[in-house]
Amino acid sequence: MSDMPAAPHGAMNRRGPFRPGDRVQLTDQKRRISTITLTPGGEFHTHKGVLFHDDLVGLPEGSIVENTNEVRYQALRPLLKDFVLSMPRGATVVYPKDAAQIIQMGDIYPGARVVEAGVGSGALSMSLLRAVGDAGYLHSFERREEFAEIARGNVDTVFGGPHPAWQISIGDFQEKVLETEEPGSVDRVVLDMLSPWECVDAVSTVLAPGGVWVNYVATVTQMSRTVEAIRATGLYTEPESFETMVRGWHVEGLAVRPDHRMVAHTAFLITCRRLADGAVGIPGAKRVKEHTYSAADLETWTRSENPEAWHHEALGERGVSARKLRRAAKDAKSMTQRGSLPQGEAGLDEEEPSGE
Ligand SMILES: C[S@@+](CC[C@H](N)C(=O)[O-])C[C@H]1O[C@@H](n2cnc3c(N)ncnc32)[C@H](O)[C@@H]1O
């Protein structure tokens, strides 16, 4: 048994009967969800009675428990996707459906050396850390300390403490990454920010030949400008741009149909791969011929000469108040240390995704 490899960081917290300190997701008969952290002697109060935390300790996951008024709850540890949609947030998070695409299309593998920006609330960082594993490397860059603080709290909660493969640097990605990563040393780059085209030179310096670059942007204008900037370098394979839509289905007896509501838009993904220095890229077979549009046409669309045009409001995004950021950071920190957070209390589950 002594030859057994150590369990990956955080894995043991997710297995076995419920223990004090576990986060538990309770679902009632009306499918309302609350998340609690089990504490010895702790109580979960609603207007319909009290559930004693000690009644859960020692039970297997998936047990049904009753409160003092015989209200029944289904008890499970939250999955990462559940946590991401209910955790304290500042910026908009990468949605679980898109995180899954980023891991697959970005080919994030155990042991990979990955850099990421911005960190925001840390949602994508968690998926990237799971994919690179303890022996991997994730260096996340975030220009705003308040966001980094929220992300640290959330990541520590999910992994039960600091993850061995993770570090955050505060500052602009395009400057900091050049100070910290050797040229050609990074396997994968993932950017989720307002203006990824500002990072083209930095990414081109640190990304290894064959390395994958993934961009996550909310609007078509950002997508267009990013693709044109990547293409203009001649250093990458032809960028691929796509989005995913996930439509849930209602399946009950003969009433089998798509759900009435869905999240229709989150963001677009752009992927490409770094060519070897000196290699000449092969343009896509269906590439639009240069003469079908002028530089002036492109400028009208991308507004590259006017950086002021690219701000949050112009891209239809809501700002985040300093008060809300302080509260999210406080919630994220206290959740790591002990507390529980009712689902949706600090998260924005009901709001539409809107990018940065
Ligand atoms: C939409 S949020 C990222 C959300 C995050 N991926 C998540 O899943 O929780 C965008 C973040 O990028 C940061 N940011 C924007 N430009 C940046 C840059 N050039 N360098 C570092 N961070 C940047 C912003 O401060 C913001 O926190």
UniProtKB/TrEMBL annotation:
Biased composition (Acidic residues): 347-356
UniProt xrefs under PROSITE patterns: SAM_TRM61
Region annotation (Disordered) ranges: 1-22, 315-356
Keyword terms, alphabetized: Methyltransferase, S-adenosyl-L-methionine, Transferase, tRNA processing
Cited InterPro entries: SAM-dependent_MTases_sf, TRM61_C, tRNA_MeTrfase_Gcd14
MF-aspect GO terms: tRNA (adenine(57)-N1)/(adenine(58)-N1)-methyltransferase activity; tRNA (adenine(58)-N1)-methyltransferase activity
SUPFAM superfamilies referenced in this protein's UniProt entry, alphabetically: S-adenosyl-L-methionine-dependent methyltransferases (SSF53335)
PANTHER family in the cross-refs: TRNA (ADENINE(58)-N(1))-METHYLTRANSFERASE (PTHR12133), TRNA (ADENINE(58)-N(1))-METHYLTRANSFERASE, MITOCHONDRIAL (PTHR12133:SF1)
UniProt GO BP: methylation
Name of the protein described by the UniProt record: tRNA (Adenine57-N1/adenine58-N1)-methyltransferase
EC number(s) recorded for this UniProt protein: 2.1.1.219, 2.1.1.220
tRNA (adenine(58)-N(1))-methyltransferase catalytic subunit TRM61 C-terminal domain ranges (all copies): 85-252
Natural source organism: Paeniglutamicibacter kerguelensis
